[in-house]
Amino acid sequence: MNIQAASVQGVFDADHSPIGASGAHRYLACPGAVKASYGRADEPSDYAMEGTIAHHVGEVCLREGKDAWEFHGDVFGEIIVNDDMVCAVQSYVDFCRSIMLGSTGPEWIEEGVTVNSVHPFLHGTVDFASSNVACGHLDVVDFKYGVGIAVDADGNPQGRIYAMGILEAMENASQVEEINISIVQPRAVHSKGPIRTETIPVTTLLEWRQDVLIPGLEASKQDDAPRKSGPHCRFCPARSDCYQLLNDIMDPWTEFGATDPDKLSNEDLGSLLTTFERLGILKAALTKEALGRLTRGGEVPNVFLKAKGTHRKLKKGAEAHFKKKFGNSDDMFEDRKLKTPAALEKLSPEIKAEVAEWAQKPDGGYSLAFEGDDAPKISRKASDIFKGKTKD
Question: Distance between CA atoms of 102 and 358, rounded to whole angstroms?
Fold first, then answer.
């Protein structure tokens, strides 16, 4: 493999580069997203934190020869390693170990890689990679813990950038002829299953680098870099005030949004449905911003905070208490776990009385409500929090 240096230059902060591998799917589709999102970042969500912990558990398993079940019940911050995480991580670990069996070269586990030949800030952290130069193979594995959005392996820019970074770091990269880029996403539904692999020759990777990656980064340098809305907007830091996203929502609606659905052509119907998908992306961004402002004590007209609904959960120690008082009855347990409060209450009046004492509703945080909603209003304004309280 022979990598020629490319002339993609730009002034970015290395620690906060907007051209990292994980964002490639966005900036290659929308070059304008690079400058629009520079210096902006979303607050980490609970889902993102869960993913971080899942990756950490997977890393320790691979480095230390452990299995995911050994971490079951461990708490990292407010994240508990539960059954779902154990099963997902173990699927990832097992797949990586199956690759290790045929590995003859170095392995990379949660290690940073950089494609210096394209740009010194084109970098990322590869979850797992392993080379078998004797067979001319390189395996790159990306672990996705998320459940909501299934990620394709075919043409995956993140995986391809990881592969390029690893090849640049290898002393014997010229012996690699073929690359397997795999997505392991056990919790998401995909027609190709939880593990999906694209196999490409190194020549295809180099062609993609020259024909897609470098032109895309060059386009992002322009002051008027084009913007294009789409599913890639979902996690863009600039989505809440992106003029292109808003225009692509408003234009089709202005044209035929008030038309009876049965009078729409197939093309117009598809355009409107796409509009609603993009409207959902914008709504999610604005909702997150409004929640933040209201939680910090601000005011947003016509909108207020209300308690987010939660299901009852049994308190710590409930399982031991119920076993001691009622025995190890199959009626009370399901998959070796105590049933939910609602299911237990149906068994007998005596058990229902115990549930009343041992069940509680956890704090679910806040959600937005609009004027006309009868839910109790919650105010986080300092004047309301300390209302009626006086100094001693």
Answer: 52
Topology (CATH level 3) of domain 14-220? Lambda Exonuclease; Chain A (3.90.320)
Contacts (Cβ under 8 Å, ≥6 apart) of 125: 110, 111, 112, 113
Computed from CA positions of residues 96, 101, 103, 107, in that sequence, does the dihedral angle turn out positive or negative?
positive
pLDDT digits (tens, 9 = 90+) for 1-32: 333 333 344 444 445 567 899 999 999 999 99
Those residues with Cβ within 8 angstroms of residue 356's Cβ, 6 or more apart along the chain or in another chain: none
Strands (E) across 153-298 are located at: 178-184, 195-201
Total-model pTM: 0.70
pLDDT tens digits for range 154-194? 999 999 999 999 999 998 888 999 999 999 999 988 889 99
75's CB contacts (< 8 A; 6+ apart) are 81
Alpha helix stretches (DSSP H) within 229-265: 243-256
Domain ranges of the chain: 14-220, 306-385
Return left, alpha or beta for 107; rule: phi > 0 is left, psi -120 to 50 is alpha, else beta: beta
Q: Residue 34 has what DSSP assignment? A: H
β-sheet bridge partners, residue 305: 368, 378
| Total residue count of the chain as it appears in this document | 392
Which long-range contacts does 105-111 make (Cβ < 8 Å, 24+ apart)? 105/130, 105/131, 105/132, 105/133, 105/170, 105/172, 106/130, 106/131, 106/170, 107/131, 108/166, 109/59, 109/62, 109/63, 110/55, 110/59
Could you tell me how far CA 52 lies from the centroid of its own chain? 10
Q: What is the distance between the alpha carbons of residues 101 and 106, in angstroms, rounded to a whole number?
A: 12
